[in-house]
Write a structure and sequence with these properties.
Amino acid/polyamine transporter I; 2 strands; mainly alpha; about 0% strand; about 475 residues
């Protein structure tokens, strides 16, 4: 190779690799959505609305809302098929500060906190088979001022899960998609098998669906939608990977829709199975809905099978979040508002390796300091908040760029997206009214990103350019 050829080769920037297809996008959605929630939330919903038909109707409405959201994101992502999800959409519609705040929240809690919580939950369910894995008694404690770090067998298992999946996803989309898709296929097959075996051989009754007049309030119905929509959250996961999808104008809408539809069908079947196993008065208020229903259907020994399902579900969810989250930080770094190194693409593996490692470090710190639970409690409403704001961005971009080519247009516009925004607003307002303390703490965490944003902008402006 001549000197000129060497200079040319070196100057070519390394970019993300487009090698994911429709199935990969759908699997990412399913992995991100289906976790512990569907095994716990139905009991909460049944307590609020003790009527089987209405319970199923609410889960269907929640699925419809998720589909509306995925169609909105499909239009936005095909209009701007870049890494980062709502970070990109808010930047285009509302400016860089609004975009930074969603990215900041994703890094501090949205992805990193959820990864930490999922990894700890995975260790806890593995403890059903290996008791030491769930042991939370610390054997090392380090005090750093007001911060105390603790290392226990459970945290070691959680850290091993985070760094194992992080390594897989650093090594490229090839091994990453194989591991991710395999976990999702196993999870979906196991859940559909649970439904089929439960209805075929389980000790339940369809008489549980026949209930006379049961009093309920309209307010309870609306409030019951909140945990349902949280259980559906994650339907937008594939949008973060838009820059790595083949033919994203077609692949992304299909992947989002396919993944969401599979989740809706699965959630309806599982709720029907729970009602088949338990009368609504026993289902209501049960936090361990899945375990309780399995024990009624198959006997006390079924708890182990459910624990294995939950562990598998959490493993696929943790892997999916480790894959999707760094694409947000990569997009931020590319704009100069995050660690510069996070914008680097690994020359061999074509992945945002530094962003993945940064996320792993922060998630590990949250586990060792046991602060992830508080962060998720404080910022849980932000998932709905930023999804609603991203949907509002659709209206802004339609107005300011009416002639721009849109490979995909959101179905039901403007009524369906407007309804999505209103429901999102209602959930956020309800969260603030019902839990003002944690909600205020969450708003403070989000707004803490403002000075960090201005510092990063000033630092970028004062840095020498090459």
């Amino acid at each position: 190779m001549s000197d000129r050829e060497q200079v040319t080769a070196v100057s070519v920037p390394v970019s993300l690799e487009r090698r994911l297809g429709t199935f990969d996008a759908a699997a990412l959605v399913i992995a991100n959505v289906v976790g512990v929630g569907i095994f716990t939330t139905p009991g909460v919903v049944a307590e609020m609305v003790p009527h089987p038909t209405l319970i199923l109707a609410l889960w269907l409405i929640g699925g419809a809302m998720a589909l509306v959201g995925c169609f909105v994101y499909a239009e936005l992502a095909t209009l701007r098929p870049y890494a980062g999800g709502e970070y990109v959409y808010l930047r285009e519609a509302f400016g860089p500060l609004a975009a930074f705040l969603t990215g900041w929240t994703s890094f501090v809690a949205g992805f990193s906190g959820a990864i930490a919580a999922g990894a700890v939950g995975l260790a806890a369910y593995l403890g059903h088979f290996i008791p030491l894995a769930a042991d939370a008694n610390p054997f090392v404690q380090i005090t750093l001022g007001i911060l105390r770090l603790e290392l226990s067998p459970r945290s070691l298992v959680a850290l091993a899960a985070i760094w194992g999946f992080s390594l897989v996803h650093v090594l490229g989309l090839g091994p990453g998609r194989i591991v991710q898709n395999a976990l999702v296929v196993l999870k979906i097959l196991a859940l559909f098998a649970l439904v089929a075996i439960g209805f075929t051989f389980g000790s339940g009754s369809f008489d549980h669906l026949e209930v006379g007049r049961v009093p309920f309030r309209l307010g309870s119905v609306l409030v019951a939608l909140i945990p349902i929509l949280f259980t559906y959250s994650g339907w937008n996961a594939a949008a973060y990977m838009a820059e790595e999808l083949r033919d994203p104008h077609h692949t992304l809408p299909r992947g989002l829709a396919l993944g969401t539809i599979v989740v809706v069908i699965l959630y309806l079947l599982l709720n029907l199975l729970y009602l088949y196993a338990l009368p609504v008065e026993k289902l209501g208020g049960a936090i361990n809905t899945g375990v309780l229903a399995a024990q009624v259907l198959f006997g006390p020994g079924a708890a182990g099978a459910v624990a294995a399902l939950l562990a598998l579900g959490l493993a696929s969810s943790v892997s999916a979040m480790i894959l999707a989250g760094p694409r947000v930080y990569y997009a931020m770094a590319r704009d100069g508002v995050f660690l510069r190194a996070a914008a680097r693409i690994h020359a061999r593996y074509r992945t945002p390796a530094t962003a993945i490692i940064a996320q792993g470090v922060w998630s590990s710190a949250l586990i060792l300091s046991s602060t992830f639970e508080q962060l998720l409690t404080y910022t849980g409403f932000a998932v709905v908040l930023f999804a609603g704001v991203a949907t509002l961005a659709l209206f802004i971009l339609r107005r300011v760029r009416p002639t721009e080519h849109r490979p995909f247009r959101a179905w039901g516009y403007p009524l369906a997206p407007a309804l999505f925004c209103l429901v999102s607003l209602a959930i956020v307002v309800n969260s603030i009214l019902e839990s003002p303390g944690p909600s205020l703490a969450g708003l403070l965490i989000i707004t803490a990103g403002v000075p960090i944003y201005w510092w990063s902008r000033r630092n970028r402006a004062s840095s020498p350019t090459c």
